[in-house]
Design a protein that fits this description.
single chain; 100 residues; alpha+beta; three-stranded antiparallel sheet; 5 helices
């Protein structure tokens, strides 16, 4: 019996980065949650969840569609997940300013 390969999964690098790139896409225009969702073939709830961190991982084809609509390379927004690491993506820590 042959096993079907698992769908590659990608974790969002940062909801803040996604938001920033939505405000100024590769064309210089902003894109709304609904516009991004429609053009990438995902629900607005998925985009909202990626922005807030409620959802951290999505299938490769959805990650590619989101990155393509925004006009950036896939790896600017997403981190490829290995089978063992799919459930956890370390949160990015805010950088502290010296003397703050």
């Amino acid at each position: 019996m042959s096993e079907t390969p698992a769908t590659p999964m990608y974790g969002v690098a940062s909801g803040g980065r996604l938001k920033m790139l939505m405000e100024r896409t590769g064309t210089g225009d902003a894109v709304t949650v609904r516009e991004l969702a429609a053009s990438a073939g995902v629900s607005p709830a998925t985009i909202g969840a990626l922005l807030t961190g409620a959802q951290r991982v999505i299938p490769e084809h959805k990650a590619k569609a989101i990155a393509a609509r925004i006009g950036v390379d896939l790896l600017v927004l997403f981190i490829p997940m290995e089978r063992a690491g799919r459930t956890f993506i370390p949160a990015q820590q805010p950088t502290q300013q010296v003397g703050a």
